[in-house]
Amino acid sequence: MATVGISASIDVTKIDKSKLIDGKKGTYLNLTAFVNLDEKDQYDNNGMVTQSVTAEEREAGTRGAILGNTRVFFTDEGGSNSTSPQAKEGFDQVSEDVPF
């Protein structure tokens, strides 16, 4: 299985607060990330992050608000976004802290 490291940055002022979900352990927002591994935009981003929409909203043609951008910082496939061994070490270190 391929591994891809993706960072994202969002503008929290663009969040539709009615879409926030109150859970037992916090307040959540469903996001959708679009990533193009083959191309970057003029700002070196590979894609965008949008606020997720329901199936009914999608069928009605509603699109989620664009909240920010995505950037690939690591791939283990040796593609154009591959980084140095130091970056891979940093990625491995971060992934060990993920609780799932």
Structure description:
With 100 residues, the chain is α+β, with helices and mostly antiparallel strands. The chain is 17% helix and 31% strand. The protein is built from two helices and six strands, in the order βββββαβα. It has helices at residues 55-59, 85-96, and strands at residues 4-10, 21-22, 27-28, 31-35, 47-51, 66-75. The strands form two sheets. Strands 1-6-5-4 form a four-stranded antiparallel beta sheet. Strands 2-3 form a two-stranded antiparallel ribbon. It starts with a strand and ends with a helix.
The percentage of residues in β strands lies in 25-35%
Strands in their spatial order, largest beta sheet: 1-6-5-4
Please outline the major beta sheet: 4 strands, antiparallel
N→C terminal distance: 17 Å
> Any idea how many domains?
1
Number of helices: 2
Total DSSP E strands: 6
Radius of gyration: 16 Å
As residue ranges, the low-confidence spans are 80-100
SSE string, helices as H and strands as E: EEEEEHEH
Label the structural class: alpha+beta
Binned, the helix content reads 10-25%
Silhouette: globular
